[in-house]
Amino acid sequence: MGNPDLFLKHDLLTIDNTRISDDFFRLINVPYSGYYVSERLKEAMEAEGFTGMAFQKMHMIDNKIKIIGASS
To answer: What's the predicted TM-score (pTM) here?
Structure first.
């Protein structure tokens, strides 16, 4: 299982929207853990009247997230 004392530390997470084909993904084990949806899925959920969730732009969640590409 590897050495539990070793871990990857990052200063900035860069997400390139041109390389993501999924409408839904999850980040875990980071301060900004959570579920992330595409703008297309967000709009579809709102159009269907889904309730009980709030949406935020990714770059507004944490200053360690940088978004590049379309729909940033």
So the answer is: 0.67
